[in-house]
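Title: Request for sanity check on DHX35 prediction

Description:
We are preparing a figure and want to confirm that the structure record we downloaded matches what your pipeline produces today. Could someone re-run it with the sequence below and paste the raw structure tokens into this thread? We only need the token string, no images.
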Amino acid sequence: MTTDCNGRTVRQCITKGIFVNAAKLHHTGIGVYKTVKDGHELHIHPTSVLYREVPPQWVVFNEVVKTNKEYMQDITVIEPEWLHTLTSHYYQFGTNREISEKRAKIC
């Protein structure tokens, strides 16, 4: 039996379950995230254990709380390649040209 010290398997399961709530750390500001789905701006909630840590590059979240900003809660750190391997039916990856070529083959 192998040991999963960093909870990789659990984090992959969470990613697969709430993949539509994926967000990437945005380059424009510290702690600013943009959702993958529509580019919505979010922040890590101040009560999160991740709030005082170095911000992870990629996360999924369970809910959003709106006060003076919109904050993610129930956050899980993920690897971006999981979005492709676990949920390839939802996300399209590649350059605009590659994606256009893929769409042309389907039609």
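Thanks, this matches our download. The chain has a mean pLDDT of 84.
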